[in-house]
């Protein structure tokens, strides 16, 4: 039986993404603060770690219906998947959400002033996300692919390039932490993405889209923070040790 007390939250979710549902229900950040253990996370939220672990065992003992075992993928494949699925989704949804909240800021802000703040927060988040993803696609992901090719003997990586993953990932993790902070504010302001009962259809659609966006962002950050980045750093460390 798995000893959940000894694993970090990120490791638990990396091994089985269904665990994310339990952590979400306890208000525990698994994607951008996954380096904590369950007792550490529960202490900050005043949750019962034994209850959380019993729920984990209950959920994870059933057959896993997650279609992909991301933890077993080669890191270049995982980078490709993140870029083509999550980066593409993010770029497609940002203009749509900005359009909705721009409209709501004009039509609903008098009754619901929080809409204006949500709009501004999301604009900031979107701008930073686009910059961070561009950095990944221009620097980190190509470097990961280059490391894989070099390990196969197809291409030399060059000692002057070693350390790129560590430097790039350090910056991206800071970006992710900032994004998570912004979305916690948005979630609180939007009453957990619940529109008022008398809200317009546009209001309801905007909040539904925003909830979907946050859900995808959590999966996106989880795949990077808890699986891709640690493996890329481990891979790079192997090159650095052999170059000495």
TrEMBL record:
Presence of keyword Ribonucleoprotein: no
Domain Hemerythrin-like, chain residue ranges per copy: 84-232
Keyword Hydrolase set for record: no
Keyword annotations: Cytoplasm, Iron, Metal-binding
InterPro entries named among the record's database cross-references: Hemerythrin-like, RIC_family
Predominant location category: cytoplasm
Subcellular location: Cytoplasm
Annotated Gene Ontology cellular component terms: cytoplasm
GO MF, one example: metal ion binding
PANTHER family: IRON-SULFUR CLUSTER REPAIR PROTEIN YTFE
Stated name of the protein: Hemerythrin-like domain-containing protein
Organism of derivation: Rhodonellum psychrophilum GCM71 = DSM 17998
